[in-house]
Amino acid sequence: MKVPFIDLKRAHEPLKEELLEAFANTLDHGGFCLGPDVNAFEEGFAKEQGVAGAVGVGSGTEALHLIALALGVGPGDEVIVPDFTFIASAWFAQYVGAKIVFADIDPQTFTIDPQCIEKLITDKTKAIVVTHLFGQAADMDPILALAKDRGIKVVEDSAQAHMALYKGRPVGDIGDAGAFSFYPTKNLGGLGEGGAVTSRDAELLEQIKILRAHGSKERYLNHYVGYNNRLEGLQAASLNVKLPHLRGKTARRQKIARCYLGGINNPDISLPVPARYGESVYHMFTIRHAERDRLKAYLAENGVGSDIVYPYPLHLQPCFNFLGYKEGDFPVSEELAKTCLSLPIVPELTDEEVQYVIDTLNAFE
Ligand SMILES: Cc1ncc(COP(=O)(O)O)c(C=O)c1O
């Protein structure tokens, strides 16, 4: 049997007709950059995600960048960022000239460790980026408590966590702003690049709308230095087709995760630990094994796709050499990078495929 890690063709096949109809509609109304599809998506996504408001932008990376600009983060500021995440979480600080200060992660949830944050706060700390990694919410309450009295902004990188909950609250609606990605492989993915900023702060969302469209409130009158960072109409049209399926697909991911958690009993494999405070949406199902590379090769030989997400902690990325970190600085993050392996968990997997992954893992010696 062959079990793909991700299979976008399989995911899109049942939606093909509906997608083509949606594109025909966009061709008819001609709203290619913003427009009716984007308006409908912003409203629909905010409702489904349970957030006060959403503004569509060009990508998750740009969502982070525009949030940094709107919050006034810049040179002279420090931003605390988890050391184990996708690199764009760190671009939040780097793009606006602020100093990145990495923090280690919690060994169970793989999300930023609030105890590490506390030690890193200085009077220059302007923001904390919290990544809800692999679909698991970070522990927000202690982070919000640290930030509140010091006027530090909390930004939720929710690119991997559509529909995830923290103590019953939707991610992207807890901190000062949330950044979502609709990259094709995300839990809600378009057919290209796309992203959104969410916030309870209507003024901040207005500012994002201005920044995404050349800093302009009024046609050809530019109040700010802005960017061309609009969500495209065709992307929004594809997202409008997919949005009604998000809840069901999330439930399917959670069911597959329960099967893995209950079925994988190979004593050398460490399973992810679901946090007591939240509901993961399992963007990734990431196990750990001391001989990760041998396990990955064995899975491939047996037809099971897997991926190393992520092989390098951020402080050891060559692009951040100038920050002066070294091996050993973040032991939890470093250990995870050496041992992690993500298994197939896309909602399109059949029960037989899930069982095959379990049996294959249990037979590994
Ligand atoms: C945690 C995280 N942050 C930010 C991003 C950036 O999103 P995008 O690829 O849409 O720019 C991604 C996804 O790639 C991500 O996984």
What are the defining features of this structure?
2 domains, alpha/beta, 365 residues, 14 strands, 13 helices, three-stranded antiparallel sheet, globular, Aspartate Aminotransferase, domain 2, single chain, Aspartate Aminotransferase, domain 1, binds pyridoxal-5'-phosphate
User: How many domains is the backbone divided into?
Assistant: 2
Put simply, the count of helices is 13
> What class would the helix/strand composition place it in?
alpha/beta
Small molecules held by this entry? pyridoxal-5'-phosphate
CATH class of the largest domain: Alpha Beta
Counted beta strands: 14
Distance between the termini: 20 Å
GO biological process, one term: polysaccharide biosynthetic process
GO molecular function: pyridoxal phosphate binding; transaminase activity
Keywords: Aminotransferase, Pyridoxal phosphate, Transferase
Active site: 186
Account of the protein in words:
By secondary structure, the chain is an alpha/beta fold. The chain folds into two domains: 8-244, Type I PLP-dependent aspartate aminotransferase-like (Major domain) (Aspartate Aminotransferase, domain 2); 245-362, Aspartate Aminotransferase, domain 1. The chain is built from 13 helices and 14 strands. It has helices at 8-12, 16-29, 36-49, 60-70, 88-94, 114-120, 140-148, 202-212, 233-242, 246-263, 292-301, 331-339, 351-362, and strands at residues 54-57, 78-82, 99-103, 125-131, 153-157, 165-166, 169-170, 177-181, 195-198, 216-218, 221-222, 278-279, 285-288, 340-343. The chain starts with 7 loop residues before the first helix and ends with a helix. Pyridoxal-5'-phosphate binds at residues 59-61, 85-86, 88-89, 131, 157, 159-160, 181, 183, 193, 195.
